[in-house]
Write a structure and sequence with these properties.
The chain contains 14 helices and 25 strands. It is of the alpha+beta class and about 575 residues long. The strands form six sheets. It has a seven-stranded mixed beta sheet with strand order 4-7-2-1-13-17-15. Helix 7 crosses helix 9, helix 9 crosses helix 10 and helix 10 crosses helix 11. The chain is globular, with a radius of gyration of 25 Å. The N and C termini lie far apart (about 60 Å). The relative contact order is 0.10.
């Protein structure tokens, strides 16, 4: 065509230029459809890991190495890759520490200086063994590839690094260890390895990690080997693949019985043996990997039938939590798996584990943590509710992916909404924390209220906003606008449409409206984008009911609840 146009007479060339000028441009890629579902041109990156990590139980140091395979599914070449180094937020010069300012006391600062936190001794090589230079920028590392990674191609990189785990009772850290009263420790490795930042249709997700807005991550397949003292048991993302190498014959027999549905005590503190053992795990289609290691844990297991599959439910806890976790741990996990699967879509993985470890409650694929081991009814409700919450995160955001730093309510609020109903299914008198529409005035119309669409790191009352208020608003939509049947079908439609894909708030709004057949624009504007005056807040209860009485020790301060931290 180009050659013909140059040889054509001037008039013909002008006519051809005019036709090209008025011809319609190529249609833009339809990554997201108007009905809130993934479009025909939807794409996302994939990152697979083969990792080795060793725990030094004396120093609390992790030494890790990995082969990372980054698959570029984007319609653009990538000259560079950004890695997340979340634990760098505890370094003295990080943006997170600078923002904390006087809020962190000097003893904590002194501890962090001594602990030397963050990803350290990081080295990166290409597959030929050539070193790749990188630049650390706060909680990220920018590395320029030897050549741009073309669409459809993949690159293999080798990484090596170290991380000092922190004392979770001294620092509100996701990753770290709890020192028990008898001197034993429970080690939790979370956000412990360099992970690629998200690159999607809105570009690179590079908001610094400040501790409040959580993860935005890519899916991938993992093979991970964890070397720990022989006396330890390990709970991790994924399936244990070498039980014969790390468990005794009796432990293996009990685990096999548990996998067939029988409730079993697989292991207990006091395992014998010197040296170390290497535990191996496999996990497919996950967006993160975490593990817990300790010699102080009881390990209970059973299985629940979900459709035509058995899913292993495992509870790990020290002696101090045995009075709660032995009678309720496995049953609460199994209850959550059944209820969320029925309401949304079947649990997609073969294992679901919960660990009782001090500090913030948190969630990772197939693995959650909960600190509760108190006594009395309130502790029992908090422990069971904490399990429901953290196991529920396997749906939002571990399966239905989202960017919590941009939309905190998209995983916390959605989980809290479903949690509200799953707790009621456990016991109609369950002392529910989150999501009661009759208590909207606890936050709505208050001076500190912020719109639900406020980014996570800008929220001053994150628990009030992204957890309780978001869940209550969704209950208003269910109870007073759409009705339970129409709402539940729409939410399940949204969840199924975005399984193992990355949704935005706009996708959720469109999917709920399209699936329910309702014009919800005014509802989204009022409840997600606006704040209310004190007068409006006082009349916030959608049904005109006075706020329900809730014991004040259950609602003050909201931001300190361990079971809502994750």
């Amino acid at each position: 065509m180009g050659r013909l146009s140059r040889m054509a007479p001037p008039l013909l060339r002008k006519l051809m230029a005019l036709l090209l000028a008025v011809a319609p441009a190529a249609a833009p890629a339809q990554v997201r459809s108007d009905d809130g579902t993934p479009g025909p041109d939807y794409w996302q990156q994939q990152v697979d890991f083969d990792m080795e990590v060793a725990l030094d139980p004396v120093s609390g140091r992790l030494a890790g190495s990995a082969l990372m395979r980054y698959h570029n599914r984007a319609p653009a070449a990538l000259p560079e890759i950004w890695l997340q180094l979340d634990q760098n937020r505890f370094r003295a010069d990080s943006l997170s520490m600078r923002r904390l300012g006087p809020a962190m006391d000097e003893s904590a600062r002194a501890y962090l200086r001594e602990a030397a936190p963050g990803i350290r001794a990081l080295r990166i090589w290409d597959r030929q063994g050539n070193p790749i230079a990188f630049e650390v920028r706060d909680t990220y590392a920018k590395l320029r590839l030897p050549e741009a990674l073309a669409p459809g191609d993949s690159v293999q990189l080798r990484l090596r690094w170290q991380l000092n785990l922190l004392d979770r009772n001294r620092i509100r850290a996701r990753s770290g260890y709890e020192r028990l009263a008898d001197g034993g420790r429970i080690f939790l490795a979370a956000q412990w390895y360099p992970r690629p930042a998200v690159f999607h249709d809105d570009g690179w997700h590079l908001a610094p990690f400040l501790g409040q807005g959580e993860f935005s991550l890519e899916f991938g397949d993992y093979q991970v080997a964890v070397t720990v003292p022989a006396s330890h048991v390990v709970a991790a993302t994924g399936e244990l693949t070498n039980a014969e190498a790390v468990l005794t014959a009796e432990e293996r027999q009990r685990l096999q019985l548990a996998q067939s549905g029988a409730a079993q005590r697989v292991s207990a503190p006091g395992r014998k043996g010197g040296g170390s053992k290497r535990w191996t795990f496999r996990a497919e289609r996950v967006r993160d990997f975490a593990f817990v290691s300790s010699a102080a844990l009881y390990w209970d297991a059973s299985s629940v039938v979900l459709g035509d599959r058995w899913v292993l439910a495992q509870a790990f806890y020290p002696a101090a939590g045995r009075h709660l976790w032995e009678p309720f741990g496995r049953d609460a996990i199994a209850h959550t798996l059944r209820e969320f699967s029925t309401r949304l879509f079947p649990y997609p993985w073969p294992v679901a584990s919960m660990v009782n470890v001090g500090g913030l409650g948190m969630e990772y694929p197939m693995l959650g943590t909960n600190a509760e081991r108190g006594h009395g009814d309130v502790a029992r409700w908090d422990m069971i509710g904490g399990i429901i919450h953290e196991v529920g995160h396997n749906w939002f955001p571990m399966s239905v992916n989202s960017n919590e730093r941009a939309y905190a309510w998209m995983d916390e609020g959605l989980v809290c909404f479903v949690e509200h109903h799953v707790e009621k299914a456990w016991d109609e008198d369950f002392l529910v924390i989150y999501g009661d529409p009759d208590n909207l005035s606890r936050y709505r119309g208050q001076p500190h209220q912020q719109p639900l669409m406020t980014p996570a790191d800008e929220l001053t009352h994150r628990i009030d906003n992204a957890y309780d208020y978001a869940a209550a608003v969704l209950n208003v939509l269910r109870r007073d606008v759409l009705g339970p049947a129409r709402f539940d079908a729409a939410l399940a439609h949204y969840a199924k449409a975005w399984r193992f894909k990355r949704a935005t708030a706009t996708d959720f709004f469109r999917a709920m409206a399209a699936a329910s057949g309702a014009d919800l624009d005014a509802f989204w504007q009022e409840w997600f984008y606006r704040t209310q005056s004190p007068a409006e807040g006082a009349g916030a209860d959608a049904a005109g009911l006075p706020p329900k009485s809730v014991p004040t020790d259950r609602i003050q301060p909201l931001d300190e609840w361990d079971h809502g931290a994750g």
